[in-house]
Every structure is written in C-alpha cells, then in structure tokens.
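Task: sequence design from structure.
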C-alpha cells in the first residue's frame, strides 16, 4: 500500500468517527428536546442499611426528641421551683428542752403575687419558714393556709418573683405519659430533676383507719425525702401534680418496692389553694359529732345490729346533727347513696359534699333503721 492509500484510509476513518459522534450528539439533543418540557418527579434518596442500623437511627431520633422536650419543660418550670425550709420548735421534757429541728421540702410558685404550693406536712408545726430560689437567693415566707386532708399548704414569699409555673389539667393524664419531678431531695440537692412515666391515676392510699387519700397520681419518677411539695411536670412544661409521698414496701410480704411515688393532682391542688388564699382554710362539710368507726370485728364482738358504720358518741348542741335530730348512740350506715364500709370510710364520703349541701342519712337507732335528712355546716379541717 502506497502512502497515498494510507492517508486516504485514515481520512475515511476520521470522517466515520466524526459522523458517529455527531449522531450521538444529535440523538441526545433530540431526546432532550423531547423531554425538556416534561415534569420529572424528584426521586427519594434511598439509604441502604441493615435493620439493626435503621433501628439505631430511629432510636437516636426518638431519644433526641424526648431529651429536647424534657429539657425544655425543665427550663420552663425550673425557675419557679423552690426549696422550703422550716423550723420546728423543741419540746419541754423531764430532761430539759429539746433543740429546735430544721425541716425541708420543696414548693412551686403559682402566681405573680408570690404564692407557693407545698405539702402541709412540710410546714406543719413550724414556727419559721423561708424559701430558697433556684439561683440560691433566700427569702422569708409566710404560711397563708394549710389543709391536713389534702396535704396541701400555701405560702407567700417576701421577695421578687423569678417565675410562675402553669397548672395543667390533671384529668387529661394517661398512664404511660412521660412526667418529670423537680425538687430538693434531702434538702441539699436543690432543683434535682428526675423523669419517669405516669404509672397509674386515681390511686387511693390509706392514711389511717378513718381516712384515705384518693385520686392520687402514681409515678415511677424518683421521689425522695425533700421532694415533697415539688411539682410533677408534663412535657408541655405544665404542673400536673404536687409530689407528696413514696411507698417503699407493701402489705404483701417483706419485699422492698422502688419507683412507687405519688402526687396530688393539679386540679385538686388548684381548688384547695384557691380557697386557702381566699379564706386561709379549705371548707369542709360539718356534722358536729364525735364518732367512732365500727369495723366488722367491733360489730361482731359487741353483737351490734350492723356490719359497719359510724357510732355517734357525742353531738354538739345546736350543730347540724343536733338540728337534724340525730342522737348519741345512733349508728350512721349510709350517707346519700353511699354505704359506709372499709372501701368507703366516713371522712371520704363526708368530704364528697360541700358546706350547705343536704342529704339523707340512713341511721340505726335501737336496732331500728330510720332515715334522717341533714344539712351540713362548714368548718376548718383540723
């Protein structure tokens, strides 16, 4: 092959290649022209991962969200939580006078005027009360009112109010809902935060044979001595309970229980604190009697004609019971529609009424059942 033929062949190959490239470009331009006016949906980005990795990512996201909600709730309520300090005076004994005793608990500010909710048992019998704010500032405080049956008390601080907590709706609580307890356990670890869930609602605990605290919120958020009176908070940063007691052991064996904390619902705390602020006490219905609770053992031992109820040992002259016609020796077995028994103690049934309410009592007098209508008076709980 001569050199002229070699050059000719090379030219043919180059022309063919250029033509091929031109065809590809032309084809691409044609395709682009055909689809350039069409809307192409955005394709999702697919991340390939093992199930374990997906679960880990999901758990991380959930934890981040929960931590954020808890942190925000604490930041919202924390500045309104206080440590309550009190002094109980010493007692005179045959060995001399005992020293004064310091006590401590927690509380939460509920108004711009400086009113604080805490537990009655935190300030009961104290002669001097003060509060310490979250920033460490200490102010004197005055006891405005106390109520032994709800275990609530209201104080008023003497100083600048740093923040006010919002009382939420405790009736909307559901078991499993995340809650946060804030308080000062042992009086030393101020504004400690613990978290848990609502274990149950409408719990009832026997305080003594004559009274049971009802409607309590049960939680597994850690509550210790000194947390009493502090707030139980939901993730919206609302106070939905006032922490008041813990149970370490039950009646079923000698096992020690953990995570059994209880709080007074905020709706009850709101109602009681309002009256304590307005009147200095909470209004309870009043019968004007001294009485003894009759257990089945007592009724069997003395062969009484009832299975249980309230034995009237004294009637206050001109009191509601006296005006209604009740007599000493009568046994009240029913109030309204409610039978008095071990599950429905007298005080609990009585305090379902308000001062001024009228109801019918079922009474056994000389072994004969009779009905007596009574209108309750008003009194300050002891």
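Answer:
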């Amino acid at each position: 092959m001569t050199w002229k033929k070699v050059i000719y062949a090379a030219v043919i190959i180059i022309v063919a290649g250029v033509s091929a490239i031109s065809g590809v470009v032309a084809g691409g331009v044609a395709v682009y022209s055909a689809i350039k006016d069409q809307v192409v949906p955005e394709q999702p980005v697919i991340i390939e991962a093992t199930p374990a990795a997906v679960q880990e990512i999901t758990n991380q996201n959930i934890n981040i969200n929960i931590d954020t909600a808890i942190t925000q709730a604490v930041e919202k309520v924390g500045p309104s939580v206080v440590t309550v300090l009190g002094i109980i005076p010493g007692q005179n004994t045959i060995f001399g006078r005992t020293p004064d005793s310091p006590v401590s608990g927690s509380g939460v500010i509920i108004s711009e005027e400086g009113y604080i909710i805490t537990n009655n048992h935190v300030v009961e019998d104290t002669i001097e009360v003060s509060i310490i704010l979250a920033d460490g500032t200490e102010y004197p405080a005055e006891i405005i009112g106390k109520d032994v049956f709800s275990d609530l008390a209201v104080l008023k601080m003497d100083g600048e109010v740093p923040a006010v907590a919002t009382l939420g709706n405790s009736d909307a609580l559901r078991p499993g809902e995340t809650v946060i307890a804030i308080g000062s356990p042992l009086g030393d670890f101020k504004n400690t935060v613990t978290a848990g869930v609502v274990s149950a609602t409408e719990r009832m605990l026997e305080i003594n044979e004559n009274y049971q605290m009802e409607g309590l919120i049960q939680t597994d958020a850690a509550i210790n001595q000194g947390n009493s009176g502090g707030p139980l908070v939901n993730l919206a940063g609302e106070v939905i309970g006032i922490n008041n007691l813990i149970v370490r052991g039950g009646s079923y064996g000698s096992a020690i229980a953990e995570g059994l904390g209880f709080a007074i619902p905020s709706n009850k705390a709101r109602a009681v604190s309002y009256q304590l602020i307005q009147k200095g006490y909470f209004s309870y219905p009043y019968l004007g009697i001294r009485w003894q609770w009759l257990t089945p053992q007592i009724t069997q031992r003395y062969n009484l004609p009832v299975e249980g109820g309230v034995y009237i040992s004294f009637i206050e002259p001109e009191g509601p019971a006296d005006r209604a016609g009740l007599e000493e020796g009568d046994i009240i077995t029913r109030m309204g529609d409610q039978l008095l028994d071990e599950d429905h103690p007298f005080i609990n049934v009585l305090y379902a009424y308000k001062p001024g309410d009228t109801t019918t009592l079922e009474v056994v007098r000389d072994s004969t059942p009779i009905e007596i209508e009574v209108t309750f008076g008003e009194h300050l709980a002891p």
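The CA atoms of residues 141 and 157 lie 4 Å apart.
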